[in-house]
Amino acid sequence: MNQEEQVTVLGLWGSPFSKRVEMVLKLKGIPYEYNEEDVYGNKSPMLLKYNPIHKKDPVLVHNGRSIAESLVIVEYIEDTWKTSQTILPQDPYERAMARFWAKHVDEKVMVAMWKACWGPKSEREKETKEAYEGLKYLEKELGDRHFFGGETIGFVDIAADFIGYWLGIVQEASGVTIMTAEEFPNLQRRSKDFIGNDFIKEVLPPKQKIAALLKAQFGSVTSKLNVIKV
Amino acid sequence: MANEVVLLDFWPSMFGMRTRIALREKGVEFEYREEDLRNKSPLLLQMNPIHKKIPVLIHNGKPVNESIIQVQYIDEVWSHKNPILPSDPYQRAQARFWADFIDKKMYEAQRKVWATKGEEQETGKKDFIEILKTLESELGDKPYFGGDEFGLVDIALIGFSTWFPSYEKFGNFSIEQECPKLIAWVKKCLQRETVAKSLPDPEKVTEFVSMLRSKFVPE
């Protein structure tokens, strides 16, 4: 690596958004420094209403310049470091599809899943249905491929890191089960392969630590609407 | 192979406007099809089964959904002229970040301004003005958001300008007073033929919004 290349990730240890960036850096063999963000901002419940996804972590700092928004960062890494391990396909149509499904994960699946687990009680049934439907589309899209990226981990797999690892922990902690092995065999299989990957494994936060954090923050399933901090 | 491009759209959609502009920037011939959103065509439902929304870009029979994704697709396929994204990776990331910001913040905020009243509207109006000011500050003294060249962020935002008179009318405020630089930028963009051709008459949009508002806010 060029002596002048200074790559730093500012992140939160438990966050799937932070991890997306670290996963891609690892997969592409790009050395980086990691800084745990001190700020654990107290965001209002109104944030959930507008978009719980738009958070402050992660930030990538490259040679003094910063980039925010995990998927924007992933594309930046792809654009900047031309390595043999590519995250996005070459073909423009395939790239458009990858971006579409990554957006689907962020906006349809993750938002609904959080709300299904910890949103206002009156909304949980509706959100559970939406998360379920969102996952079903992904299940169908994946088919019998190894990964959304085909034989190797791709953009959508990175976007769906939460589904691959955090989802199981969240389901246990919240008591809400949306994704079962019976109904989602493809996604289940992909999750296993995903977390089995050596580079991905390196950056995954310990399961017990996440479970403990979730239980401590959100208590029982019947607790009132809380701020999503992870 | 012949390039067949069809755009399923709805004339006042600030999202559809983005794709229209991008196609014109690249000089791509396309067939524009107006959708009746109360009676969506079988083609729309087939090409965008998950969201059932416009705009839908159909290129040689294959659909691309989501306007910012469509604009990037168009930029990558017809890469021979008028680049929409900059070539520098850092500038590209900034462009994507701001396009994403607009997508996440503008729509919900502007909706409050015309579709609600009372306290909800007042709060919505405040939020909306703050978002505009953030964007204005990002624009700074540059001619376009990307600098000297018209690009992704300009395309992402300009369609909302046809709704500005509606926001002003129902929100009872002047965008020019709050964000003069932004209005100057709008005027500059409208001088561009691809933009002028792709945007509807704001007066017609205001009529449409009035009709919509009467459904949400019974007077």
What would you say this structure looks like, in words?
- The complex is a heterodimer of chains A (230) and B (219).
- With 230 residues, chain A is of the alpha+beta class.
- Chain A folds into 2 domains: 3-80, Glutaredoxin (3-Layer(aba) Sandwich); 92-218, Glutathione S-transferase Yfyf (Class Pi), Chain A, domain 2, CATH 1.20.1050.
- In chain A, 55% of the residues lie in helices and 7% in strands.
- In chain A, strands 2-1-3-4 form a 4-stranded mixed β-sheet, covered by helices on one side.
- Chain A starts with 6 loop residues before the first strand and ends in a 12-residue tail after the last helix.
- Mean pLDDT of chain A is 85; it is low at 42-53 and 220-230.
- Chain B has helices at 14-25, 42-47, 67-77, 89-115, 118-139, 152-158, 164-171, 175-178, 180-190, 193-198, 202-216, and strands spanning 5-9, 31-34, 56-59, 62-65.
- A 4-stranded mixed β-sheet of chain B has the order 2-1-3-4, with helices on one face.
- The mean pLDDT of chain B is 96.
- Chains A and B meet through strand 4, helix 3 and helix 4 of A and strand 4, helix 3 and helix 4 of B.
Order of helical and strand elements of chain A = EHEHEEHHHHHHHH
Give the strand order of the largest sheet of chain A, numbering strands 1, 2, ... along the chain: 2-1-3-4
Which class do the helix and strand fractions of chain B yield? Answer: alpha+beta
For the biggest sheet of chain B, the summary is: 4 strands, mixed
* Adjacency order of strands in the biggest sheet of chain B: 2-1-3-4
Query: Which regions of chain B contain 5 or more consecutive residues with pLDDT less than 50?
Result: none
* Total of domains of chain A: 2
Shape annotation of chain B: globular
Number of helices in the DSSP assignment of chain B: 11
List the secondary-structure elements of chain B in sequence, H or E.
EHEHEEHHHHHHHHH
Q: In total, how many beta strands of chain B? A: 4
> How many H/I helical runs of chain A?
10
User: What class would the helix/strand composition of chain A place it in?
Assistant: alpha+beta
- The amount of beta strand of chain A, in percent, is 5-15%
End-to-end Cα distance of chain B, whole Å, is: 55 Å
**What's the CATH architecture of the largest domain in chain A?**
Up-down Bundle
Keywords (chain A): Cytoplasm, Detoxification, Transferase
Domain GST C-terminal (chain A): 91-213
Catalytic activity (chain A): RX + glutathione = an S-substituted glutathione + a halide anion + H(+)
InterPro entries (chain A): Glutathione-S-Trfase_C-like (IPR010987), Glutathione-S-Trfase_C_sf (IPR036282), Glutathione_S-Trfase (IPR040079), Glutathione_S-Trfase_N (IPR004045), GST_C (IPR004046), GST_C_Tau (IPR045074), Omega/Tau-like (IPR045073), Thioredoxin-like_sf (IPR036249)
